[in-house]
Each structure stands twice: as C-alpha cells, then as structure tokens.
Amino acid sequence: MGCLVRVKDLPKYALKDWEVGKVKEIISKYKNDKNSVIPVLREIQQSIGFLPIDVQRMVADKLKVPEKDIYGVVTFYSFFSMVPKGKYDIRVCMGTACYVKGGGKILSKIKKELGIEPGQTTRNRKYSLQINRCLGACGIAPVVVVNDKILQKVNPKKIMDIIYSYD
Amino acid sequence: MNKKAIKEEQITISINGIKINGSPGQTILEVALENDIFIPHLCYDPRINIQGACRLCLVEIEGFREAVPSCITKISQGLKIKTDTDHIRNLIKLNLELIVSDHPLDCLTCESCGNCELQDLAYLYDIDQNRFRGEVHPKKVFEDNPFIIRDNEKCILCGRCVRICDNLIGANAIGYAGRGFDCEIIPAFEQSLKDTDCIFCGNCISTCPVGALQAKPYLKKARAWETKKIQTTCPYCGVGCQINLHVKNNKIVNITSDVGKNINKGSLCVKGKFGLDFVHDSKRLTSPLKKRDGKFEKISWTNAMGSISSKLKEIIKNHGPDSIGILSSAKCTNEENFLLSRFARATIGTNNIDHCARLCHASTITGLIPTFGSGAMTNSFEDIKDSDAVIVIGSNTTEAHPVISYELINQVIEHNLKLIVIDPRKIPLTKYAYIHLQQKPGTDIAVLLGLMNVIYENDLHDTEYIDKRTENFENFINSFKEYSPEKVEQLSGVIKDDLIEAAKVYGSAKTASIFYSMGITQHTCGTENVISVANLAMMGGNVGKKGGGVNPLRGQNNVQGACDLGALPNVYSGYQYVEDNEIREKFEKEWGKKLPPKKGLTVTEMIDGALSGKIKVLYIMGENPMLSDPDILHVAQGLKNLDLLVVQDIFITETGEFADFILPSACFAEKNGTFTNTDRRIQRVNKALNPPGEAMEDWKIICRLSEKLGYNMGYSSVSEIMDEIAKVTPIYAGINYKRLNASPLQWPCTGKDHPGTDILHAKNFARGKGRFMPVEFSLPAENPDKKYPYILTTGRILYHFHTRTMTGKSEFLNLIAPMALAHINEEDGRDLNIKDGEKIRLETRRGKIEAVAKVDGNIKKGVVFIPFHFAESPANKLTNPVLDPKAKIPEYKACAVSISKV
C-alpha cells in the first residue's frame, strides 16, 4: 500500500536559489490564479522533481489557497511527490490485472534490488520507486513505467536488467 | 425554519404514511428531523451546507427505483417516503458495518462513550461484531496544543469538522490528506494546530459524531451519564450564546452547546468553550474582607454589613446622598442591575449610578436616539442570512464577537454575501471581505460621508423610503457633497476606487446592514460617527426591514440589560427619564420613597468627583475601572482619595486592591436571573453550582445591605424582581420567567401576549420619522506630532476578555495568549529597527508601558494597536481621557504615541 507519507520521514532539503526562482516563475505564469493549483504543482514537480513543504507553502501563499488544501492535493495524487525523485522514476502498476499477472513479484524484486520502499529514492538519487493503481493498460499487464517509457508484459527476472540498461 | 415561507407555499409529503408539511427548498431529512421522525445520519450538521457523504440517511420513495439519500433530496409535492423498510434497514446496516470495520471498538475507555452517534446507531442496528475484518491502517494522534485532541484512529472521515472549519469558522486549519484507506484529516504538513490559523473555537469537537475530537481540558473528568446538564447564558461577550454546563460534584466538567438550537446554533468560541475555569479558581473570594493597616482580613457578613451601613449612614448625614457614587455591572443580571438602580435611587437617594456602557456604547445611545428614537441593535442575528451586503465598521468581529463572525463568514462562503470591512487593521474578517477600506484611525466620518456622496451621485439612494419614512434629507445633502472620493482619500487614506466600489455595493444591494462596534463609538466624535452610520443606513432605505438595519455589537454579556434596567444616571429602567415628573412619581409610588429629581453623574465624572472631593464613597459591583477607564493613574488617585470604597466582586481585582471592604459574590454559574444580549434578547441564566464559601448572589447582598440601611426591598426570588421590572418598564412589560423558560424574548415586549420584536422601526421609527442629521468631520483630539509620531489604537483579542478578571485565571487561555502584543506595521518596524518578538516601550503624554512587538503587514503604517486586557501592559495608562461632549465616552481609539526599543 502507498501509505500516507509521514512528514518526519521526509528528507531534509534546503531549496536552492534556482529552484526558488523557478517556482516563483511558474506561479506568476499562472497569474496567481486560485484555480490553477494542479497545473502549477504539476509544472513545479516536473521542473524541480518534487514538491517539498516549503514549495507548497509558497504556492498556498501566492495562490491564496489554504495550505491544507495544497497539502491535500499533493498527498492525494500519486504523481505528486514530497520526496525528490530519482533520475529514473520507476512506477509499478498494482492494479487488479497487473497484480494478478505478477505485479507483486516485480515490486518485491525491485525493492530488494534497490533497497528502497515505495515512496523512497535511492541515496544517490538515481532511482525512485512508486506504486500505481491501474494505468488503464491491462491488456499489456504487468506494466512498469520508467520515466515516460512504458514496459509491457514484464518478467520479474528481467526487470532489473532493463532498468539498469537505461543508465 | 422561516415561518413566513411556510405560510406562503406549502409542500405536503407523506413519511411512513403520515402527512407532513414542509416548505420549498427543504430536504427530506430536514423535514423529517423537524417532525421528530428518525432517519440516521452521520455527516449532516445544520450549521453548514449539506455534503451527502455518509450514505446513512437512505429512504425509499414510491416510484423511485433506488433508495435515495434523504439529505440531498429536496421535497416535492406528494412524495411518498418510507424510512423503515427491511430493504432500507439492510442498506443502512451494511454501511454502518463498513464504517465500524475501520473503527476501534474501545468504547470502554472512549471519552465519547454515551455521547457517540456511531455507538447509538450501532446499538439501534445491532452491530455487535466486525463482519469485514481487513488490513489495519495506523493513524496519527495530534495533541500538541492546549485545547483539542485529534485521534484519527477513531475518525470516520465524515468531513464535518473540515467543513465547519472552512465554511463556518473560516480558519481552514484542517483538511484531508492522502486517499483511500490512508486518508486522514490533519493540519497541513502535520503541523501543530498552533501553527495554523486555528482559533481553538472547539466547533470541530461540537460536530464530531464520534470520539475522534476531544476537548483536552475536559478529558477524564466524567462519564456522559454522570453529569447534570444545565443550560445557561455565556458570561463573556454580548452575543449571548447558550451553553450547557455539565456538572459533577459541584464542578463544571464539560461545556457544550446544543447544535442547531438557540441563537448560536451550537457554535461557541474559545472563551465560552474553554475559558470558564475561573469559576473554580482558588483565588475566588469566599468571605467578606475588610482592609486593616493595608491588609485584607476576613470578617463575617454581619460585621461587614454593619460596618458598611453605619459608615454610609454617617456620610449621607454629613455630605448628603449625592456624595455617593455607584457603579453597576454589565456582567451582572438584569435583576441585579434593576436592584442596584433601586438601591441607589431609593435606599441611598442619589442618581449617581452608571456602568461601563459609558465606556463602550454611550455614543450609540446619544447618536441613535435623535436619529431613530431607540439606541439598540435594530435587527436580529438571524437576519444576517437575509442581507445581500453587510458593512462591518470599527468591529473586529472575529475576536470580539466570534460567533457573529462565523455567521458572516458562512454567509460569504455558502450564500454569496458581499462583505465590506472598514477598519484600520487587516482584521481576520478581511480575508472574506469583498472590499476592505483601510482608513486612518479617527477618520470614519470622512469615509462614511464619502460613501454617502458616491451613493447620492450615482442615484443609488432609496428616494421613496427617504420621502415616506424620514425627514430633513434636503438639509442634509450639503453635508456630504464636498466629500468627493479624492478628498476622502486625502483625509483617510482610503483608495478612492475602493470607496466608490464599496458605495456601489452597499447602495445597490437589495437589503444591506451595518454592524459596528467600539471603533465607531470610542472617539470624541463618537456620537457623530454613530449618526453618520444611521444616515447612511437611512439613505439606503435599510432601516426597519429584515436583513437591514444598524447593528451596534455590545461588548459585555449584559451591557444591553444594564442599560435597559436603569443603571444609568439619567434614566430608570426602560429609558424613562428621571427628570420627567410623571415617571418619577410612578417609581416613587412603586418603591414607596421620595426619589431625587436631578440626573446623576457618569462614571468618568464620578472619578473626577472622587479626585475633587465631591464624591466620598464609591460602591462598585463587578467592575474594574482601575484597568478599564482611560488614564488609570488619574483613576488611582481618585480611588485613594475616597472615604469609603466598597467592591463587590468574585476576585480581588485591580480596583479591589484599593477597597476598604470587598464582598464576595456568586458568579454567573452560581445564580439565577436573566441577561439581555446585543440583539435585545432576554435569556435565562440558570444556577448550576453552589457559590464557594460564603459568597452570595449580588442581588441578595444588595437586599441585605438595603435592609441594614432601613429600607426593606422585600424580594424572595429573582422571578419576583422580574415581575416588578415588567410592572414599571413598558419595553419589558410582557416578560416573565414562565415565558422565558420556554424561549427567549426580544424587547420591546409590551404585554403578556406580545411576541417580542425582532426588527425595530419596522413600520415607523421609534421617534416617528427617521431624522437625517448633518455632521462635520473632525480629527481626533490628539494627533501625531514630532514627539509622538504614531497613532495608538486599542482593542480586544480573542483569547481575553476586558480586564482579564475572568480569562486571566484560565490556565488554557493563558497558554495561548500570555501577554500583550503591540501590533506594528512592518515598514515602521524597519524604520525603528524593531523586529517581531522584541520588547518595546510605548509612551504618550499620560504615561508609558512596555509590551512585546508583533510586526506584520496587518496594520496600517503609522498606527500601533495594543489590547487593553493586560495589567502588566496597561493600555489605559496611555489613552486619552478626553470625552465625547454628548456621550461622555472617552477616546480610546486614537491618541498620539511614540515607540522605542527597550
């Protein structure tokens, strides 16, 4: 299960100047519009890789949306992350079809190999691991997504070779 | 439900074969609950819009294929509804089982046992074990604040607390995080509630159907069924919330309010919910005290009464009755105020009686009597929902009258009310304001004249209303003509476009009301401020109709009552003038004594009199002028100069320190009586506890002392006093305890069959026609100069009340707000090199004090705000005792001050 991330488990991270600049730029691009919470968060996530609490506070302040609502959105969507993503973001589908076809085995294999739990990132920030609910691609189950590459009918034995081959 | 609407159009439905009427717009659930028909529900709270989440209120409707949730289904003509079929029962049971499957069944230790909606439903639907066992999801407990514990293990995610916090309180402190099984309701980033905008009102607790939210101070005190629940009226502000005191062994073990009922609909603020621990404070007075060699020692009631009465007799004999001044109390009951007025006038023989209304709303009376003919709030709280626009001027409603601000915020969020805030500070309400006009302190008249000017220029005034209902408009026009938006911007600092927009919103609203408070009244031009508000309301045709009006918010729980019952130097109860021979004769006959014919001295004049030697005795019941009056060094000299000072109170106050005798009185929870709240509503105060030690109800003390002075008032109960009030006071003529016990009444209530009056001036103004009165704009008496370059303004904060006699004793309130914070603009902070949290010194021509700086952007540049509650940083060492010439109210809201770092 993708457990609700506890704030105490988040890595300490001080935003770099360029990151702060980028966040400000993105927020102002949306003209501080209250209704743009999701696009703003999405663009920031894509740009700096994750949504630390400081960034969420900035978004809340500038868009005049209560902090708890920003936090609610960030924790609701699995796409958003409060943990920095690795260079290769691995998402394993655990939807019904993928699970039946061995999604669980794939997940254990990756966990064991990389030494991280879902929601975490390796120390060298190379790999991060998430769980997805159904991606809507049950015909090619089990599915793993690495960044924007979709791997189909994945064999647990081969998964690590494929992942390592990207680097 | 609105009774008028029912009359207009009725919809008849049948529930379980019984025919029932409802009105358009009502839901099936609302109609069922109104008619005591049981439909289970867990996510419904009548204070906020319906959500429809819990799916427990399912009903069957004839002709519908599926069961429907009754809370989101509006009634329509002829619906045939069934609530108790097997099918419905099974559906509800299934939903309940699913909820219970993820809920710990620890009812043995749960604080809410016996008071839990889920437990009650489980009992009714026979849910004794868990059919759906599954994965357990660990949840978090939040308790790092003094007031509220959130145990998410018990949370059933009905969402009531989130919606109450968002849509009623406007604090947005908690929200959903995560999703599915992992979803929890928490403050953003799991931070402490202390770091959010939470105002600790505890209304999330009041709405929680289970035990997930608990009031920390009341934990492990008693089981729900062990306590006696007594409904009474909250002793803090003028809203008059109804609270339930849960009592076990003569101790208050919990405080709640009935959701959906009474004036406050079950909502409370932090003071009402958590701030009543002063009742059991160890410093409560338990026996009469006499000062000997500068120290207080205990004496018996007999001795105290003997000594005080002989001293009084002696002074009356040597200096006459007018050498005695009496201060009554807006904290005491109506009956006690009436009695003290009788004591002053009949027993002693002086009209020197006054109370703290002089310091808050005297100008409301001097301003509204000549314009409308009556000096009270014209409309009722329930009316807010009928307003299209509301102006809040000079009232920090969120902190001084929290429960009214809830209603305003709720109407803005859920019903599109347009709120205009006019205040020098960015008060919390501005977050919900359509427009905020931020004027310099003391320039309200310029802003109000500017609004009238724009309304007139744009033809938004109600000409028909002005012709029919008012007089003197033609002469009045010239008074605002020169106040163009440009000029107003120059005088007040209000941006002209904002002024124009605000005028258009108020002018074009169908019904609009104005709420104001001490920001309007506590000026040398207080009377003129109030008149300007009245003028504006009449121009908009807004007086005398539902949702409109001029609504002064009174500060104390019973300041309205103390005024109504004649604790004023110029009037008897019901504003009947003492100088009117016919009226005086009526009272002389009733009281069997010759009464003084000339009006007496006001509070401020009595203090001056004490200093000059004209006043020899002050008898003070439940007031604390040593903190509340302006320029308190002057007050101290006055009190020292007295021959006799008697103070009747529940604690030794700052004033009590100067007393020769202190008499211990019973507090609100220990007596019977009535309070009249700010919308003229007379509500019962019910005795829940026995007073500590030998403390006695104030009315009994007065009766006893009066008897000692040779004048027996002869009452045996408070109900008898109310009967006498009704007999001599036309506006209270229909009031008696039998009626009040059934429901509160709003005066004027002129006869036994009179239903009370929710809207004043409905057909005619109390004085016949409403009178437009021209006013001139004038600056405050003291303005910034080189030596004192800033404007000082004073006021209240949410967590304290007045001179902290009560809230200062509350352990929990003082954890949150332990000291005075002086609010300074961030630019000024930069100029003075003062940072947030640093100690600063404020100095005026009267004195200097120290306080801690709070530097932010919420206050206008050049202005500094300080609360007046704290004896350690007494704001009234600084304030200017200069008075409004008509109302004799001091200018607390503006004087010149200098700021320096300590």
Summarize the structure.
Chain A has six helices and four strands; from the N terminus they run ααααβαβββα.
Mean pLDDT of chain A: 89
Domain module count of chain A? 2
Average pLDDT figure of chain B: 93
Q: In the CATH hierarchy, what is the architecture of the largest domain in chain B at level 2? A: 3-Layer(aba) Sandwich
**Number of beta strands of chain B:** 40
CATH class descriptor name of the largest domain in chain B = Alpha Beta
Unreliable sequence segments of chain B: 1-6
Structural notes for this entry:
- The complex is a heterodimer of chains A (167) and B (902).
- With 167 residues, chain A is of the alpha+beta class.
- Chain A folds into 2 domains: 15-76, Arc Repressor Mutant, subunit A (Orthogonal Bundle); 88-165, Glutaredoxin.
- Chain A is built from 6 helices and 4 strands, in the order H-H-H-H-E-H-E-E-E-H.
- In chain A, helix 3 (53-63) crosses helix 4 (67-76).
- Chain A starts with 16 loop residues before the first helix and ends with a helix.
- With 902 residues, chain B is an alpha/beta fold.
- Chain B folds into 5 domains: 11-84, Ubiquitin-like (UB roll), CATH 3.10.20.740; 132-280, Alpha-Beta Plaits (2-Layer Sandwich); 291-360 and 559-746, Rossmann fold (3-Layer(aba) Sandwich); 362-552, Dimethylsulfoxide Reductase, domain 2; 790-901, Barwin-like endoglucanases, CATH 2.40.40.20.
- In chain B, 30% of the residues lie in helices and 19% in strands.
- In chain B, the strands form 11 sheets. A 7-stranded mixed β-sheet of chain B has the order 15-14-28-27-26-16-17, sandwiched between helices. In chain B, strands 33-37-34-36-35-40 form a 6-stranded mixed beta barrel.
- In chain B, helix 9 links the parallel strand 16 and strand 17.
- Classes of the chains: A alpha+beta (167), B alpha/beta (902).
- The interface between A and B is medium-sized, with 19 and 21 residues.
